[in-house]
Amino acid sequence: MIRVATVPYAHPYLDAVLPADVVRVGPPPPPADPWAPSPWLDPAYLTAHADEVDVVHLHFGFDHMTPDEVVAWTEAVRRSGIALVVTVHDLRNPHHSTRERHDRHLVALLGAAEVVLTLTEGAADEIAERFSRSCIVVPHPGLVTPLPDVGREPRLVGVHLKSLRSNLLDPLDVVRAAASGAVSGGGRLRVDVHDDVDLDARVPGLREGAEAGEYELVVHARFDDRELTAYLQMLAVSVLPHRFGTHSGWLEACRDVGTRVVAPTCGHYADQWDDVVLYGNDEVRGLDAGSLTAAVLVAVTRPWPARADPGWRAEQRTQLRRVHDHVYGRVAADRARA
């Protein structure tokens, strides 16, 4: 059986695509720190344990490393004789305020990987143009099962600001534009934000708009998985307020529960689902607030999209595991012959 160390060790996406007949090599992160960096990203650890693994498959979780550290890591992988597979989830890291660091990460990783995968044809085209690497396209699997006891509020639009991370557009600009579109379409806007945000300091004016009745503001702790599914399922439309990005698991969850998505023109969101309604925004031209208002109006007045068919999702997952099984077998055999 092929031994695969995934980075990170576990994640719902990895659980969905990892073939059943491979051995997932640990160690898992400590329960108290599930996002602790994988020890497989430490060149010394990787070198010491190289005989315990056939393939390292890097997805994400390397944000903490400098570009030089990533280069050193890829050199350690090469010296160890371990096959490297990389799935490019992000071409623009949502946690970085500028793109330079992640670009340098990708130059090193894509130059060293035996096989590169990504989630959409648009991302594959961008990788070919920018990094001269061909990719296998593996669509994002479904990760959410609709809840039987949660209804939908017709024409309810949601904007979730989370904890105001680096890739968020100006919150007030997004909220005002989305509220205008929702109200024009006979609906209303709900704005969510995590309770670790000092709203008065970071988004002055947001509370005042809610108090004036322009939208509903809900401040709460991070949702657990069931709470997030229930939240998405009760919306008619979910707006992705991203200043930059590439792909979205949030979008796929909306697809699974039948909630329409309004997404920016940056990234490759529309390649994930043909029902996505786009609004104008990228890092060069910035937000086109009028197009966001128009997109929300269109999205909220269209008939609801159908939920992703569970049978289709199950077949998709089977196919994704088959592709990964083939990739692991191929690169492990190539390394064995080298």
TrEMBL record:
Domain of life: Bacteria
Keywords: Glycosyltransferase, Transferase
Domain Glycosyltransferase subfamily 4-like N-terminal stretches: 7-142
Gene3D superfamilies: Glycogen Phosphorylase B (3.40.50.2000)
UniProt KW Ligase keyword: no
GO molecular function: glycosyltransferase activity
First and last residue of the signal peptide: none
InterPro entries reported in the protein's UniProt record: Glyco_trans_4-like_N
Record-given protein name: Glycosyltransferase subfamily 4-like N-terminal domain-containing protein
Organism this protein belongs to: Klenkia taihuensis
